[in-house]
Amino acid sequence: MNELIPALLRGLWITVQATFGAFALACALGLILAILRRARIKWVSVPMVWLIEFIRTTPLVVQAVFMWMALPRLIGMPLSALTVGILSLGLHYSAYLSEVYRSGIEGVPRGQWEAAVALNFSPAQKWLRIILPQAIPPVLPVMGNYLIVMFKEVPVLMAITLGEMLLAANSYIASTFADGIVPYSLVALFFLAVSYPSSLLVRLMERRLNRQRGTQYGNRIRNRRSRIRGERTV
Amino acid sequence: MEIGFEIVEVGSVVNEPYEGGGKLSMHMHAVPLAETAAERGSVRPMVRFRNIRKSFGELEVLKGVDLDILPGEKVAVIGPSGSGKTTLGRLLMTLEEPTSGTIEVDGEYLWHMEKRGKLVRADEKHLHRMRSKIGMVFQHFNLFPHMTILRNVTEAPIRVLRMRRNEAERLALEMLDKVGLADKRDNYPSQLSGGEKQRVAIARALVMKPQVMIFDEVTSALDPELVGEVLAVIKEIAADGKMTMLLITHEMEFARDVADRVIFIADGRIVEQGPPSRIFTQPESERLQSFLGRFRAYRAGR
């Protein structure tokens, strides 16, 4: 028991690293995929649709072990399990996040795109200044949920020897010949201790966003902020 | 018969951008011409539609439209809904691509460019350059909801024209003042009435100093009591005289008061055109007569 808890905590730390690393990658890559699949040029958009479908219809564990084997050969140097774990988990979920972005982008009224054209914004300015600031806030809670889902998916990376909690529990059981009930229960408990408060946070964020949308783009909140800064308010 | 306007004493200022001072002295005589002034080479049209067709799938919305708009001319487009009049403005703003035909703006092709002597489809760079001459105000305002009123107006000058922020703000406040909304600078669009939103949208388009401005049914989405304030602003801009204006509208009195020429479109074709004084009092075609008749009956019944 004296060895189990520290081992699990080390596993938790690796799990958290893998989660946030992969989430950051998935957010960036997902946005690129979402924008590219809207490209008017067919030979850009169509391969993106294929790629997203391919990633979503093959299991994460297969993608992970494939990359674990293939990536070091491809670049000719060894990679840590954490690196490959972040890459595979991030790539996998970028396909899902690209769909989340897509729903956000499709929620922006057509008139906004047309106003951006009429005012002659460049494609990059149109995305950064007009479309994304309106597309992303409504889907932030969904993205938060994916963060939690990804956190819970990390044990899959045990298959590529990532030293997360489940692998730590297994090693403990193997080396001490202990019964599995306690170690595995503790792993579940550790996940619960992180996931549940996180999901409450996401729900809180969702409620706040809904309230903001109720007052249409949060004038009340913005006014409160500008009052604090001592600026003129509405 | 085609109706045009004789323009005399145009001088050398015709192709100057309109911000080049208030000395653009056009004396307009309502002299009907057998051919347009443009075709005689006396003045180049600001906008020229040539045999424009536009189809959406099976449906042909524009069936060959020819139209010249002279610099500074105010052209009102009227017609039943579904006649294609809005599409005309959207083609000019590059929101839709014509199925066939050409559009010229200020002497250059809009949707095409010349490459090794051949006319090819315009690339984004060409469209970007051409769009700087054109502005548009939409039926549904399309203000940016995540920006304050001031930023709605300054965003494009700062990002697109690379104007310095304080310069852009000075200009924006000038424009907002013109539409009577300078005191709303720190509000968000959702806090404004429809009429106010539309006036901001006008200021936002004006600040880019387009040579041609398209007003696409700008009062159709407004409550009746808010229509007047928006039309008053447009009338004031029109009175400045320098800007070429394409007014797609349902407001007949407004078309009569502001336009130099009224175009009646039905079923994707220009059926009749002429000065408002004639179009509204002596319509020649049966289509226009029945359109105006229905309009008057609706007005009377309201």
| CATH-assigned homologous superfamily of chain B | P-loop containing nucleotide triphosphate hydrolases
Number of separate structural domains of chain B: 1
Q: What share of the residues of chain A lie within helices?
A: over 70%
In the CATH classification, which architecture of chain A applies? Orthogonal Bundle
CATH third-tier fold name of chain A: MetI-like fold
Low-confidence stretches of chain A: 218-234
SSE topology string of chain A: HHHHHHHHH
Number of helices of chain A: 9
Would you tell me the overall average pLDDT of chain A? 89
Largest sheet of chain A: none
Question: Can you give keywords for this protein?
Answer:
heterodimer, A: 234 residues, MetI-like fold, B: 302 residues, alpha/beta, Rossmann fold, six-stranded mixed beta sheet, four-stranded antiparallel beta sheet, 9 helices, 25% strand, disordered N terminus
Layout: helices, strands, pairs:
The complex is a heterodimer of chains A (234) and B (302).
Chain A: H1 4-36, H2 42-57, H3 60-75, H4 81-106, H5 110-118, H6 123-153, H7 165-176, H8 181-214, H9 219-228
Chain B: E1 6-8, E2 27-29, E3 47-56, E4 59-69, E5 74-78, H1 85-92, E6 100-105, E7 108-109, E8 112-115, E9 118-121, H2 124-131, E10 134-137, H3 149-159, H4 165-178, H5 194-206, E11 212-216, H6 224-240, E12 244-248, H7 252-258, E13 261-266, E14 269-274, H8 276-279, H9 286-301
Parallel strand pairs in B: 5-12, 5-13, 10-11, 11-12
Antiparallel strand pairs in B: 1-2, 3-4, 3-6, 6-7, 8-9, 13-14
